[in-house]
Known about the structure:
The protein is α/β, with parallel strands linked by helices. The protein folds into two domains: 2-88, 2-Layer Sandwich (Nucleotidyltransferase, domain 5); 121-238, Nucleotidyltransferase, domain 5 (2-Layer Sandwich), CATH 3.30.420. The protein has helices at residues 35-49, 67-81, 108-118, 154-163, 184-211, 225-228, 242-253; strands at 2-7, 11-18, 21-29, 59-64, 86-87, 125-130, 133-140, 144-152, 217-221, 236-238. A hairpin with a 2-residue loop joins strand 2 and strand 3 (21-29). The longest helix has 28 residues, at 184-211. The radius of gyration is 19 Å and the shape is globular.
Amino acid sequence: MILTIDIGNTCIVTGLFHGEKLLFKKRQSTQDLFYKEQLTKELNKALKKENKTYDEIDSAIISSVVPNLTKTVKDAVESITGLKAKIVDLKATTKIDLSVYNENTLGADRIADMVGASTIVKPPFLVCDIGTATTLSFVNKGYRFEGGFIKAGMKMSLKALAENTAKLPQIEPASVSDFPGTTTESAILSGEILGTAAMIDGIASLLENKYNLNNITIVLTGGLSHLVAPHIIHSMVYEKNLLLYGLKAIAEAD
């Protein structure tokens, strides 16, 4: 079995795989002061349900974009399982050619996302992770990572809109069933959800023009990606656990 952990800006997501089966997935706040205790509780529950033991966990792997939490989580994993978790970086064994990017700035989450995408679609593809930030990572033919795009996430954008205007309300991301908006609230929501979808499709089209491609596949993931998925025009695959599957693939390759 493989223990996979993603430390994001807002949440820590933990998954335990047995073969291709995701036995359990747990999302905790990065502010949770009792991470070790909660992880122990959830692992105990999952292992008991599957009639497994800690000895059957072969490896652990962590991706992190919050450096001051990395050691805390790594130490917790070692304390609970006895395993030294691998920390994902550019030295990770993957089929993705990452040589174009500055090795000091590429997020481990984006590496795992690209690897996860490479297990379900063939390049060229554009991985879009819609979370605290929205990141887009383009992998060309030959599994060459050409670079990407980063913008404020949807919640961040909606918060900024409310905080920097006198009359526009704070709203939460939600599904859009009809557009254009006929109230201020529905106009804001349409602008954010459909604007994000149009941005993704637009960038895919720009990349197709630049690299003379006809068929970039968009791979959507992240906590809010399900709201955007219905409005994507390009060929699209949605996988909510993409990053965890990417971590699993990296662990298996090492």
